[in-house]
Amino acid sequence: MPEMTTMPTSTDAPQRSAPRGGTPIRPLQRRRTWGVSPVREAGPLTYIALTFAVLLFIFPLYWMFVVATRGNAAIAQRPPAIAPGGEFAENVARTLENEQANFALGLMNSAIVASVTAVSVVLFCSLAGFALAKLRFTGRNAITLGVILTMMVPVQMAVVPMLIMMDAFDWRGDLKAVILPFMCTGFGVFMMRQYALQGVPTELLESARLDGCSTIRTFWSVVLPALRPAMVVLGLLTFMQNWNEFIWPIAVLGPDNPTVQVSINQLNRGYTTDFALMFTGATFATLPLLLVFVLFGRQLIGGIMEGAIKG
Amino acid sequence: MRVLNHDEASADVGPPAPPDAPRESQRRRERRQALRSRLDIRLSPYLFVAPYFVLFGVFGLFPVLFTFWISLHDWGLLAGNQGFIGLDNYTFLAGDAKFWRALVNTLGIFVIAVVPQLVIALLLADTLNRRIRWRGFFRVGVIIPYVTSIAAMAVIFGQLFGRDFGLINYTLDFLGLGTVDWPNERFASWVAIAAMIDWRWTGFNTLIYLAAMQAIPRDLFEAAALDGASRMRQFWQITIPMVRPTIMFTVIIATIGQMQLFTEPVIFGRGYEGGTQGQFQTVAMLMFQEAMDYQNFGYGAAIAWVIFLLIVLLALINVLFISRIRSAD
Predict the structure, then answer these.
(1) pTM for the whole thing?
(2) Do the domain assignments include residue B259?
(3) Which among A278, B61, B268, B304 is least buried, having the fewest CB atoms inside 10 angstroms?
């Protein structure tokens, strides 16, 4: 993870190349290796504590996989099974066949909803964030404040009026109902603004203007490439958030046209408990996110940490 | 521009001839271009921020205000609006034992979830902020729970905290500590739900704190170490004060999230009732139950509006409380 370890020293970057020019290297090296103090050195206890924490964090996922690859007997088995079994294919087939859960449709719907909202949030929020950070116009500060204030409004609780509205639009059970309201978020606008303040060089914008670029053209060919790191992070966060959305899809979509979370809730509602089925469904809902994490995890971690400093 | 001047000059002198037409059109084109460019500069910023405000207006501000309007009416799902009843829904709510129980549940789960979560996150961040091997691995390890499906993991935790076949009870029993009836005892059910929340969010907060800690100038620690301050002392006297704004930020975010707590307890209790006695029904679940199961939109809206107010109130208290601590220093 070279990207992350360089983060704290990123301000030293220009200096780091200085030694080539013959400047003394000593003090810099000392800073990067935490100086002379032995106090900040990690002892064995630190490693034990960290390893324990990581095991705790990973265990539920592992347990999910163990039961998903075994039958229901694994739940009651004493001592508990600790290794994966060989019934995964069978459980998958059973889960997909379950009519209450409608899992295949749920997975597809969730993939559509999460991807569409992620792309749209990234686009609209970049547009707005760029305008708030780099363009001059009357009312800019007031609008920025407006974004920050509206960010705090817990709109998820407004289920009742939203349902009445969706009935009026005739959008009940329609994916539009879980996509449109989430196509641009205040959090995203604010995040892109913070990034654009430093990440988009003003000189580039000016030269694009002198070349006769319209504002939207400048956005497309100059701003977007500069914003790319933040776009990846915002896209990931949005994808995960909408993949996990629960209260609104349950209210407006229902079991006939479910997202994957609704499917899980369906499996979870019966009076009998088929744990192998539920755990396999849970695996379905979790694997796509883990896959995304494997692909973009480094950017995600960097993004969360960077956002913490700037926000 | 120079071309344009030249054209104008010649147009003054020369007789009106056929070449005048293209010149005229060119001038008009350039004027139009200048106008378009001015319009572009003037209007673009507003057009760029418009999508957010349009969407927020339609799907944010309007529903929130509409919630209040609905809460003043007797409004059913099928029956529709049955007329204005003033604050009746709110007076009923003030006397509704279910609401107060749900409120106590929500606040109780909030406290036993958020306090350990943030304390552990601070400690983990402090350890990750030392010189350490496999730093990348540990960071990935703490953030993995954040990248899972909430409902899916609530299913897993529901089994882990099961009364009869749960692994946690098995382990407790194995250690000779006896078993706990997690879903049915009030406090125990809160602990189980808090465990799900903490499992997911501790690592996330750890990374946020770690970022804040890395921004602390290292000379501070070095100077303290040279002065003989222990690691414990450094943590309390340097780390904590320096990351205090970040702590405030995470507390507020946690407050907003926890007041709307819904997914974990719904999956844990397999419904909106929050256990046989409503022992872990949160206010969001009660709102949903009233609106969806009982189709009582007016009352559901009143509960939702109270949740808004609670969030604002708690956020304000957080800000006041923390700024008070700061000024006391």
Answers:
(1) 0.83
(2) yes
(3) B61
